[in-house]
Amino acid sequence: MDSDTEVESILRPEKEDEEDDEEEKKKHQRPPSSYGSMKSDEEEEEEGCDEESGQAFVPPLPVALPGSSTHGGTRLQMIRSESPETLYTMTTQQTKPPGAVVIDTRSSDLGDFSENDEEDMDELLVTHSPEPPEPVEFNDTMQTDENSQPGRLHPEQDLPHIFKSVQAVLSGLTPEELYKFKVWFYQWETAITLQQVMDGDLLDFVDRIMEILGQDRALLHTISSLEQVNKKEEAEELKKKCKRALMRFQLKQYLIRKHQVIREGVVRAGRQNMLDTIYVQPHISTCGYGGIDPSHLFPRQPPSPVQVPSPDTYVDLNNLFRLQKADGQLVRTVVTTGIPGIGMSVSVGKFALDWSELRANKDLQFIIKLSFRTFWYLRTKNPLPSKKPEMSVMEIIEYFHKECKDTKFLEEEDCKFLIIMDALDCYQAPLDWENAPVINDNYTPAHPDVLIVNIIRGTVLRGARVWILGRRAAVSQIPSQFVDAVTEIQGFSDEMIDEYLAKRFDGDLPSKIIAHYKRVPMLQVLARQPFVSWMVATVFERCYRYRGYGEHPPRLTPFYVSILIVQINRRLQFYYGKGENELKWSTDDKNLVIKMGKMALKMLERNKSVFVEDDLKEYSLKLTEVAVYSGVVTELPAASADGKRTFCFIHYTFQEFIAAVYVFTLFRLENKNVLDSGLLQMPKLFTSKDQTKSAAGLVQCALERTLSTPLGQYDMFLRFLVAVQTKIYLINSEVDCH
């Protein structure tokens, strides 16, 4: 018995009317759609007749045997070779029971099987064939835990809803109108052929464009084609049905354009890097201690007061909004902080990009970015058409995101979406958390200060999750009752640094750079900050273009000089609105560095690494200028014993470096040796007061202090002071690695 006859004997009754047989042959001449349950009306009528007559059995999974001359007679097709595999067929394969056999009939030959094999296969096919899920009800059936990644799309944003909406609208066209629509659709879509557009019925057409173009592109091109053939009412109807999906798509495109290419330092034409290509996720901890790395080249005495979080507190970037509160509820408001240059902006870009590419957090219907820079711009410039001093939160969203106009989704409490509010330190006005009026309506106009407070409170945009990012000295002003979770970006581990450098370059250059920077232990510690890792990659890439580079260890001090310059320049750009061509330091900028250096030197003399606000007043420094804007100081989360806020430099060695800069600057500009206190015994060579004011005398004073201090707090200070006196820093402040 041949295989076709045997399959027919199993799945067909012995007696069947010839007329029904002919009808069934016509029915199965067209390959079934991947979305099997989304049938046309004619097919549903034919199925109704079959069920009433009870003369034929239609198998739940279409199966086809290759090379069969009775394709229409067997009524079995397993794989439609001309159509790519879809989500429906993939789910069917994944849900097969253990031990079931999957037969790929596209390349097999019936002659390779014996009769016994055929009988075994038939038995397996009958007993192990799984019942396929209903495509209409399909919604990420493989994911059972709602709190797991990548999440579930909203039903109105998922494929079945878009498929049926497109099919329903196109079903209202006459044959002539449908033909004209298909011609126009083909002319302006290069990814699909004319035969693919014209073959089959309407269900085949919708099925095919969804498979080839994807649901978003197919939907947009369908709407534009309807408008081009003067079917604007149908186009508007389709827009209305798929409004939620269209809004998500447009927000996705905005985030992809904004974050797909990472902009590091000074952007150079033709030297762009894709974020997905080079991104390495830093450690993010739910138990932050300030983000300061206590590692030091010389052991400090007494030990550092800064603690380091344990690995069990680390959380994945995409799981920030899957954290739970003490009562088991998911968090609403998450605050993420870190020291300057730790990578908060890059983390926002990666989170948004993963959502846009449907890699994570698909259950978030929308992600809307409302930076604090945006609110500060509105507060100072007021660009809205109304020119009113007050505006509603929906007016702001619609002004910066046109696709959100005339949408009621955001007012629904069950609408799960995310508002990203980064750069809190850029909002320079104080926020009144206690006395700000309460707003319960998204369309109530209010001052930007009041809107920010109410968004964080949760009285407006009730369905929103809120992600706030900023430097710790800025985010610490938010009352704890409005924050569900505080996370801190800790930076890279040593393995992450190597992975980051390996992703940036090809060939043997990464191994050269990795081996080279590790020759300086302090640089290896400093490179745990992603900003410094980028600096290491950029500087050494240029240096290895020179012949013979790499014989000597790299210099450490140029990296500290560059960090200081970059952070002060960022201060001018972010907080004072200066352009890239307007970054010339004013007298106030220079005085800020000198005063911070003076404070750092006094702290070294007292063997202190932590200071409070009262210490700043001693040197005529403002708290905001130092702790928020400078980029070289951060706040510690633990207050002092008397409850005062505590601060420190971004690394202990940076305190020693900026103290050396202060000593050298006063020596060069005022010919003043601040280290010559008169208390130290100077060698006879430097007994003259004028001689102690020479460069050699300055170094000699620093050396005397270093040798007379058993705790060693001047060791790195001496190294930096000697380095900044070299000729390269008197001529040029740029990093030079030779």
Oligomeric category = single chain
Give the strand line-up of the largest sheet: 3-8-4-7-6-5
> What is the averaged pLDDT score?
79
CATH topology group of the domain at 281-490: Rossmann fold
Straight-line N-to-C gap: 84 Å
Overall, the morphology is elongated
Radius of gyration: 34 Å
- Give the CATH architecture of the domain at 281-490: 3-Layer(aba) Sandwich
* Computed structural class: mainly alpha
Uncertain runs are 24-97, 100-115, 117-142, 678-687, 728-738
In DSSP terms, counting alpha (H) and pi (I) runs of 4 or more, how many helices? 31
How much of the residues is beta strand, in percent?
5-15%
Number of strands: 11
Q: Share of helix among residues?
A: 40-55%
Name of the CATH class of the domain at 281-490: Alpha Beta
**Main sheet: strands, sense, barrel:** 6 strands, mixed
